[in-house]
Every structure is written in structure tokens, then in C-alpha cells.
């Protein structure tokens, strides 16, 4: 822009189809961006564009790959621009006269100019992570070491010098060495992550000062130890008053100064481009105080755990290097005992630190929960008494009139409020949230105030509205309406800015990205033929079951407004095509569809129209009244002010159904609805002249359509606006590009980011003028405020246990936690439903970042960049305005969602934004940023590693203990009087029991406190109890394991990709193992084997070995305390092995488990199915998902180091014990022979067998196809035989623990060899594998045999664990006589949830009820006691209530029963003829449930009901 303004404008004869600037300046830049990542864009057979990355970028993005942030920073830094922009004649652009520079832009050599713009390398290793969070790591390590040294008792006085010092001050001083060590690592990490253009060395003087600063602690510590060794006389030679204490003081001073520089002085490897936004002093003090309290509580309550760690090492008599004498250390260092002790000491210290840094996340969550409550009171001006006692619902008229309408009458209520409130109620009725009766009760009638606005005291509200113990006829029974009224009442209690007045309301655009999500549900989705799907329930029945009263209101409304609306109730097959159109819309408004989102967002249009009609501003009165009287003019004003913009990425590729839904949406909703999409056409004859990329086949355009655009071929619409793009625009993972290309079509100053699974409410939309008032700023004017304003969401998908878990977590995050994050300076942009200033957000790349892989979590980078650019930019959280939001409902979809978030967070932690914010922010803000985002995910990883580490230490110490047959050698028992099992019991109780308790409490506290604020403490407690009873700990433990797996893999290896989760209802059962090739559907075992099942099985094995080694041989007073550790261990094992099956719908049905067993047999080829070519074998699955031969690997030093330490631990234990065996049995056993036999891996017999089989196949024609299971059993049998033979010597002399340690070592050694084999096959070229070399084929068979047995054992263990659940379900079924299960009660929190275990048939004209559909087709069935069954299957509980008075059936087609009698039913056939069933199939006795069927006059018509 500056170049253009200063240009000497001259005529240019060059004209192109694309435009000169696009062709000459923009496209060359685009070439450079495109060529950095992609090879070409081709067109596939379906006509869609298909990107092809460079071969080196297919798996992951290398650290030196330039991305958008590098180019953006380059163009934001004038000095680099002046220095780097070079023309094709090798002169510099800025050497030209100012008037000629713009014209010379076409001659810039962009390849040369942008050659070295990389400023930050996204390094996938711990170095990249360390560069981003080094301050957090340093703070915790410093606190941990100081606490560890402080709790250790002072050593007794001695004449020799210990390695760590003889006195407590000297030992504490050793911690100061952490400062230079950390500084060196920080500099090294900064060097690794700095890009080429950022590796400019600082001034030599600055580097020298920093070197001196970091070296001072080393010098002072060396002087301190020298004085300690030789006495104060050394100092007295310099000055008589110098002493050792003064040296300690100097060392502490320089160490503390260096630590403060690291923690408190912002610093990065490059000079910041922008200045951070200043924070008020009061806010800074609050943030420091918060973290001081949190860290102080953590440190104080961790003293016991750290003290227990030191006590355990003392009681285990583990040598510690700090306590050893410098004189004696060389004598026994590196002996077998010393090596073993050093490894055990290192592992104990590391595990203690791992748990120490983990629990900070939980303390942070607890602190944010308390702070969130305080902030909620502060938002209400600290009127705590009014908050608890005043009926906020009764005050809605006065508060709404004053804060939103801006005027009131003498009674405090504006005269415009009653008609406005009636409009709100009308919208609720049109949405079928209330029926006609409740609408009348809620509405104003003449001057009569609705009784809902009558004042009620706190006890009345608690007993009627919160607990529902007493009926309140004025209070709606619909939970959604209850929440809406309460949310409006709560919002009006908060401080709200002065609203804008029509017609001066600034423009706003709602931006909704859409890919291929469902727009409008179809009949085939809601009620399709379920043939062959015995575990699928019709979606329409689920929705009717979930929203029973709303469906009644819908039917009543349709019967009133639509002539000849049939009274078929829930007999879905009887509805005609026209009725199904209305049913589709009704269902879509209760599903996570785009229709629901657009219907909600376009309520802004109606709300703005309402504000125009109510406008009282004298300056705009004529305009407002004039427009109010003219609907077209009013619509024009509102359309100019508000735009609902859907960015449909795949619009050109829609099918006829989606085109129809899109057009229906445009016709149905207001004119403010617009659709942006990316269109294309052939390059044309001008392609070369226009500079279109030679490796792209099309021109691309950003297009805009609305309802006024003409239809082409009756499907897609002709664009009204087209903007040509430089090339193919989807260069990232899709969503960010899709959002950003639509920004040119947005209207107004503000953009609100919305997802395609949200909704809205009319009464909340009326608050838009107040929301826009948040952007007022006295410095920049009404529209210039640099803000991102966030809002909470109402999670509507709290259906079933998993839905409630996900909804609860999302509710807590979106309310109480974000409320605290905003105060603490850690809230960022999370996409929906934040509103932002468009003018400022487009300067940093749009509402989302779109670099492939790096910006997988695209939304948050807008907030990170916003905060990083500073200069007055702010992010705030406002809670008086709400939108609706749908979340995932099924176990698998929830975990898919978190896997995407985890992988995205892993990438996010390596980016420049996190690294620079972590260094430039103040310490409190840096800690908040970490624990509010990446720290949560890393804590899940640390937590999932905590229990295996503790079990490993437990087993290691137990097997290192003296053998029971040689108690005389147990020096520890003789000296300390405590066994190793008792010592480890106390250690385990003090360590992980505390962390797991914090994990559960911290996960519950935010939701508990937020629900207490919204609905009262009693309601909150009940909801949390429901979560625990329905096994929420198992879900969250498994979720932590999944999160930890994905985030760690992404940090170390990279390669994340976008995951489509889907948010459908959890109606489908997922099989145990997926065996069908054509379906492409895997099973639960295939999904989670490598994530959790293998680790869970190994944990079971380790625990069993620990118990065999005497893990429970503890002192009697420790048994009770061990119960908590045992419970934690059991929960972890149960979660890691069985959680996916526990939360899998209908998993324990007998026929389903029988099918699972058949699939399991076919999968492992135990019995090859005949005539079925579609069955996928284990070998196919393993080769494609785990082995991945020939695809290459990404190595991690961490993995190699872990294996090295693990094997070294068992190696040192075995070497120490075998040496002892050789001493005790020197006359019988050779020490060398004992070590060789114990340490030798059992691979010789099995590998020899594989070679022999391969030779027999080659020379004798031995058929090995489909015999891998037999071969695997033989191979593993050889391993077992070889292991037993080599360890038999230890067993014969009674050294059981040593033998078990040998088993563990041999198993671990084979596991490592198997990993190395997999690595070998991944790096091996395909040509080498196809040659059929004996060594290669034998090695492959050996590998496959071991891996198959592993999967057989693990899957068998899981199947055995599922048998009790199946037996319990069968027992309950037979004892109750119902078809409702306890598993349904767990998964859906409803024992009478519809299932389809039985099959019924409906025959009749026009009735298409499918086979396999049960208890869903009858509109009402009276059962024992006079209650009528819900069509979708109510529970047995309703059938056990005796009826005291006759009741009418739901739709008037059932006959009431007499008290205590049986039932009677009649149903309407397709023709509307009513009749009694002539021959009931079964009778429903008192408290039992059965099927009901009969013949009807209009034909044989079967109906069923379950109760």
C-alpha cells in the first residue's frame, strides 16, 4: 500500500484476463508458497482437485520447511524487506526511486528474495519442546531439588568429604549449579529451533556478559567446595573476615540472580517484532498472587511424598552418590552393586519428579475453579447475597428493560418489553420447546404479568425449580427452556456495556465453515431399512425418545397448522413424503446439522429487525419507524448490517440431495444468508500469459451466492460475485483456508467464528447490541478496539454417560475455566463462538492459520498471534451471552476428537508462537499459557506413564530383594526391620495415590462449582455422583492414555493429520475385531491395541509378577492403606483393557458376543471361513497398521534411551544376583555359566525353527499358508522351553525372585529384538524383501509369530474379562423378564432405552417398519398399573407402578386399564381404522415386560411395546 501511494502512476498497456497485479505480483509469490510444500494439483476421476506433496513431506513436515508464519514475519519487518527484496537484474528494489518501486514489483526475484526467511524451526524432539517450556521445567526442577535436599536429614559429622557436601547449606548450594546447566541447555535448544535468518549472533559484549553470568555459579560453587575441603584458612590469607559462610551467601546470591533472570526476564533468541500489551498493575499483582498460592500449596503438600521418597531409599539401603565419600568412591564405583543402586536411585528420583511436575496441572485446575467463582461474584459487583436470595427470573423484565432496551417506565418495565417477551415465547413455541398451554402461561395477556415473573424465595426455587420435588405449573418442564430462562436471568445480573441503538448498530458477519457435514437429515437417515443391522436403532426413534414432549408439541402444532396432518404418533412408516419433510426439519433441529446452526445464527436477523422496530433514538427515529413500516426496507437495512456467511468448501461437488438442501436453506432463511465457495474453470488460452502455475490444471475463484442468484440446471446457483485466486487455495488441512477465503465477502467490522454444530436462541440474539458494545474503546473510537471477545456455550449433547462426560468437561472449560484464564492472561481464541475485530485480525493471516500439519489446531493460532503482536490487543471472556453447542456423544468419537486435539497440541507446542510467548510473557502469564493449553495434554501423558513407572519400580525392588530361602543375606531386614514389600507399600501409597486423588478431584471441581453457580449445589452434587456411578473415572483414565499417546508421538515424530470425528448419536455397536475388508470398519481391538491394550496387558503381567514376588507381604497396619493403591491400580487396568467395551452400546448382548467370538476366530485364522473372501486376517491388519514394511521410520533418541535404561535395570539386578549365586554355590555353579544362562535371550530355538520351516517350504514344498497360528504357537513354545531350561538352575536352588527377574529380562530382550526387527523391515527396500532371501523370510516369520501370539494373548485376556459382564446381563434379563439391561443403564442412564434384541414385523398398506425394529412402533401401550409405555421403550420401573386412576394413552388410541389389572391396546392402521387386537401374543403381568401383537381389522398388523 505504501508503495502504491508513493508510485508515479503511468498508463500500462498490458491487459490480462486475470489482472496485471494478480498475474505479475501475486502469482509469483504464490508459486513460491505452493512449491515449498506441493508437487502439483491434479484432477482425479471424480473431478476433484488432488494435491500431491513432495515425497519428503508426505509423512511429516521437516523442521526447515518454510511456512506461512515465516513469510508473514518477513513482510512485517521493514529492515529485512529493504535488505532482501532483489530484482531480476540483481539490483535491490529499495535502491530504486520511491516513485518507481511499485512498478518494479513485477520484476522482483521472489525465489532469491525469500530464500532465507526461516526464523523458527518446528523441531520434533524434546529440544523443540524444551525451547518452548523451559521456564516451566526449570521452575519445577528447582523446586523439586530444593525440597528433596531440604527434607533429607543432615548427614552425621565425618572427617571425609562427601560428594554433595557435609553440611545442609553446602548441599543446598549444589542446586545452584542447575542455573548454568539450564542456561546451556536453553541456548542449545534455542540454537536447534532458530531458523537460518534468526541465527545472527548477538553483540560480542552481550554474549560475554551472559557467559559470565551463567558461569558465576560454577565459580562460586567451586570456591565453596575448595574452602570446605581445606578450611577457612584459605580465605583468611586474603582477608581476616572472610569465611565459608560468606562464600555460601555469594554463591546463593549469584545463583538466585541467575534463576530470576531465567524465570522473570523475558528473552528470546531473536529480537521481538512487537511489544506485548501492557497489563495493569492490579492485574499483575493478582496473577502473581494466584501462582504464589498455587505453587505454595503444591510445595507444602508435596513434602510428604518427597520425604517418603528419601525414606524409601534409606530403608532400601540404596547407595546415593551425594552421600558417598570422595575418598572411598573410586573403590566401589561401577561395581555390580553400585551400578544397580545408581540405576534404582536414578529411576526413583526421575519418577518422583515426573509425579511432582504432573500434579501442578491439578492444583492449577483447582485454583482456577476457586478463582472462577470469585470472578463470577465480581461480575455481579460482589452482590453475593442478592445472587443467592434474589429471584433473578422475576427480575428479568426490569433488568432487560434497563440494560438492553435502555429505557423503562415508572414500574421499571419498558412498555415494549411485554410484546417483546411474547415474541420470545412465540419463538420457543415455534421451536416446539413449549406447548400451547405453557405458551399461554408464559405470555403477557393484556396487562397481566406472567406468573413466572412473580417473586419466589430461595427455598421455593430450590424445591421446585432445582430439585423438582414439588410441581410449579408456571415453570416449564422442558430442560432446555429452563436453561434458557435461567441463562437470560443470570446474564442480566452481570455488568453489560451500553448497547448500540438502531440504526447505528455496527455490521457483523457470522462465518460458518462447512465441508461435507449434514445439512438437513433425510428419511433414509432417520428411518431406513435396518436389514442386516440388528444392532442399529432408527435415529428418529432415538430423537423422539429423547425429546418426547417436544415431539408432542410438534405434532400438536402440525395438526393445527397443516390440514390433514396424520395422527400416527411414532409409527414412522405410516407418514407420507410431505409429512417427512416436516419431520426432517424437526429432527435436524435436534441433531448436529448445518440447518440447526443456520437457523440459530439467522436469528440475528430477526433480532435486529426487532431492535429497529423498538428504536427510540431521536436521530434515528424517523429512519427506524420508516423502515419498520416497510418490510422490504427493514430487511434491506438489516441485511446490510448482518451477514450469515457459510463457507462451503465442497459446494461444486455436492450431489443432488445436498444441492437441494442448500437451495432449500437459502429459500427458507432471511436474505442475510450468503454462501461462499471455491469455484474453478479450465485454464484457458491466456493461462501462460496470466502466469497460472504449470502444475495446476484450473483457475480458481472465491465466489458468493445468495437466494437471488439464478439456478443452473436446477441445482447449483450462478455466483453473483467472483474473485480470482492466484492458484489452488487449500494449501493447509482445509478448514483454515476455507474460512479465510470467505473473508472478502464478510460485511461490517466484526466477525463471529461459528462451527457447523452450533445453535442459538432468539432471546440471546437480542443481546447483540450489548455484545458489540464490548468493542467500544475511548482511545480508538467506537469501532477501533483491538479485541477478541469470547462467550460461553450451552452444551446440548449431554445424552447418555459419554455425552454427559464430554458435555461436563466442555461446560467447565467454556465457563469457569475460561473465566479464570481471561483474568490470568492465558485465554486464547478457540474458534467458536468468539467475536473479533476483522480489521485487525486479517493483518495476521485471518481468523485461522492454515499451514499444513503445523496449524492442525487452526483456531488457537489466531489468539496466539493476537497476544504475541500486542500493542493494545486484548482477549476477554464475556458471559452474559450464550450460544448452543453440540459435542461428541460416543466413546470412540470423543476419543477421536481428543486425538485430533492432542496431535494438534503436540504441533502447537513446537511453534514459534508458544516459544516466543513462553519467553516474552511474564512468569505468571507464561505458566497460565502452558497449563491452560499444552500443559493439560502433557500432564495426561505424564499421568499415563506414572503407574507403569511405579509398578516397574515396585517389581524391580521386590525382585532385587533377598530370596526367602536366604534371609540371612537380607541386610536391610536385619538393620531396618522392614521388608522391601513394606517399604515399597509406603512409597506407593505416598506417591501415586495422592496424584490420582488430585486427578479425580481436579477433574470434578470445575464442573461442580460451575453447576453450583448455575443450578445450585444439590443439583451439582447429584450430577457429579451420576458421573462417578456411571464409571466416569474409567473413561477419563482411558482418555488420558489416548491423549498422552498422541501428544507424545506428535512431539517426537510428527506427521499429524486432520481427523473427521462425526457427532452422531451412539446408536451403533462397534465390533470387537473388524474382519470385513469391504466395509472398511475396524473393531475396538484394532482401534486401541497399540494405544492402550498392549500396555494394559503388560501392566497386568507386571502386577501378577509383583504379587508372586511377595508384593502384598507387608506389615498388617499397611493393608488398609494399600487398598487405595490397589483401587487405583485396578481402575487403571480396567480402563486400559475394558473401557472401550464397557461404553460400547449393546456390547454384552449374547448374540453380539457370539459374533465377536466368531470374528476373533476368523481374524487369527484359527478356523479359516469357507467361501468368504471378504474376511481380513490378522496378518493383513498387522502389516498395514503396525509393521508398515518399506515405509521408513523416524527415530527418537528418547525411545532408545528408555530401552537402554530398562534393560540395564534388569541386567544389573541379575548380574548382582548371579554373582551372589556363584559365591554361595561356588562348589556347584560357575559364575560365568550362571550369568550366560540367565542373561541369554531365548531366541535360538525359535529362530532355528523358522529357518527350518523356510527351507522345507523351498525344497520340500511345505504349505505354510493360513498356518501362521500353528507356527506362532510352536515358535513361542520354543522360546518358553529355552527360557525354562536356562532358568531351571535358579528354580532348583529356590531362587524364585532371581528366576522371575530372569523371565522379565528375557521377555524384555525379545521385545527389544522384535522392535528392532520392525525397524529393519520399515527401512528395508521392497526389492530386498521380494527377493525371498532365507534370512529375510525367516526373520519375517519369526517376527509375525511373536506378534500374533501377543495379540492372541491380549485379546483373549480382554474377552475373558468381558464374560462376567455378559453373564450379569443374561442373569438380569432372565430374572427380570425384561429386554432392558444394566449395560443400557450404564451407557444411556436409562434401563428402558430402546434396543432391538427382538424382531417384530409390521405389515400393512404403507407401513415400512423394518425387520429388527422393536418396541418403537406403537404409539402407546397401557401396562400394568395404568402407565402407558413410551414408544421408544420406557423402563420396567414405570410398569411396576399400580394405576390409581385411568389415564389416556399418548395419542388417544389406547384404552385405560383398571387399577391393578392388565392392559388393553388398540392401534390405528394405515387407513386410520381403529380396532382391538384380537389375539394378543403375550400378556404383560405386573412388573413384567413382554411383546404385544394382534390382528387388526384393516389387515394383519403387528405392534410391539416394551415397558
Q: How would you sum up this structure in a few lines?
A:
54% of the residues lie in helices and 5% in strands. With 1507 residues, the protein is mostly helical.
Could you walk me through the main structural features you see in this protein, from its secondary elements to its overall organization?
There is one protein chain. The protein is mainly alpha-helical and 1507 residues long. Helix content is 54%, strand content 5%. It is built from 58 helices and 20 strands. The strands form six sheets. A nine-stranded mixed β-sheet has the order 9-6-5-4-3-10-14-12-15, sandwiched between helices. The N and C termini lie far apart (73 Å). The relative contact order is 0.07.
Give me some keywords for this one.
single chain, 1507 residues, mainly alpha, 9-stranded mixed β-sheet, 3-stranded mixed β-sheet, 58 helices, 20 strands, globular, disordered C terminus
